[in-house]
Amino acid sequence: MINLANTSEPGRQAAQFSRVPTLLGHKAVMLYKGIKYSLTDPHFWLHQTPTQSLYWLNPWLAAGVHPSKIRKVGRNAYLKDGEGLYVSRAITHREFNRLCRTGERLNYLIDDDYETLAKDITLPPKYRKKMKHFAAHVLPLICASDRVSLFASSDLLAEKYGCRKIEPHWVEPVALQRNNDRSEKMIRLAYLSSASHLCDFSGLVRTWVPKMNSLLAERGMVAEITHFLGWHIDRDVLPNVSNIRWKHRHALPWRIYRHEIPSVRYDAILYPLQNNPVNDARSSNKLREAKMMNLPIFRDVSEVIEWIKSN
After folding, report:
1. Among the four 64, 65, 212, 284, which has the fewest Cβ within 10 Å?
2. What is the CATH number of domain 1-41+173-311?
3. Pairing between strand 186-191 and 268-270?
4. Which residues make beta-bridge pairs with 246?
């Protein structure tokens, strides 16, 4: 496996320091876009994380629940009047205790196999440490509490934890305008997965890129691959090939992402998944996202090759 991650803390700190001007510029742009999108999206500030929006907030709003009935009571927690708390992700032990002290019923969504993630050496060290602590010390408390109702985002997780699977609810952003500024000679591809997919990104670089580049070169075509992994990867390790260009971007805050990504005219989404227990438990989020944007999504390099040939 190609090691793309900045796995050492000194290395990550050095990468962050060397790109401070870039990061400051990124934050300034995010501030501007946040103001811009909040003017057209009446629910902009209600959104928290992808999981909170897709599984809790979006279905409520689609069902006609008034926003005044929904309150943010944590980074990954909503309080819905008359129904209780709706929570997800790897919350801390302190956060779980704080939510329990409210006396409200707690609905918790398990959207990853945290025990398996804790063993994934391709993840950034801090992220893996967080997953390990949550899986060992917090998730067992959540599962054992008689005040918690469990839900899962995939069939495997539903079976593992003995709970009901629920589906994500994607909504096209308000007043969406697609960006038409593009060259017809360029294929624009997007790798939209987060840092929890570094193993999959390594497979993309190691296996997909050489095969894609050879075909593109034969046909006199060029592809641009945009990723949003920021400094989670070492850019110097990425292959410099003739007909594929890399576009490096930092991760977008979810409130911005849900407006920004659908507005870009990507041609397809690359979604390689290695054969491992972490991916076995993945939800259908990315597949539904691609469907919402009316874009093909490829999970195998052979699919990309056939698609390029047909273009």
Report:
1. 64
2. 3.40.50
3. parallel
4. 225
Q: Which of 97, 60, 101, 62 is nearest to 82 (CA)?
A: 60
Distance in angstroms (rounded) separating the CA atoms of residues 162 and 148 = 13
Tokens of 256: 């911005």
Residue 5 token pair:
């991650």
What are the tokens at 281? 């438990």
Q: How far is Cα 106 from Cα 256, in angstroms, rounded to an integer?
A: 28
pLDDT digits (tens, 9 = 90+) for 182-215: 556 789 999 999 988 999 999 999 999 999 999 9
Task: Write down the pTM of the prediction.
Answer: 0.88
Return contacts of 62-66, CB within 8 angstroms, 24+ apart.
Answer: 62/169, 62/171
Task: Please give the angle made by the CA atoms of 50, 56 and 62, to the nearest 5 degrees.
Answer: 105
Q: Distance (Å, rounded) from C-alpha 151 to C-alpha 167? A: 10
User: pLDDT tens-digit profile of 53-82?
Assistant: 999 999 999 999 999 999 999 999 999 999
Greatest distance between any 2 Cα atoms in the chain: 65
Distance separating alpha carbons of residues 221 and 279, to the nearest angstrom: 32
Quote the CA–CA distance of 209 and 305 in Å, as a whole number: 11
Collapsing DSSP to helix, strand or coil, 20 comes out as helix
Count of positions (residues) in the chain: 311
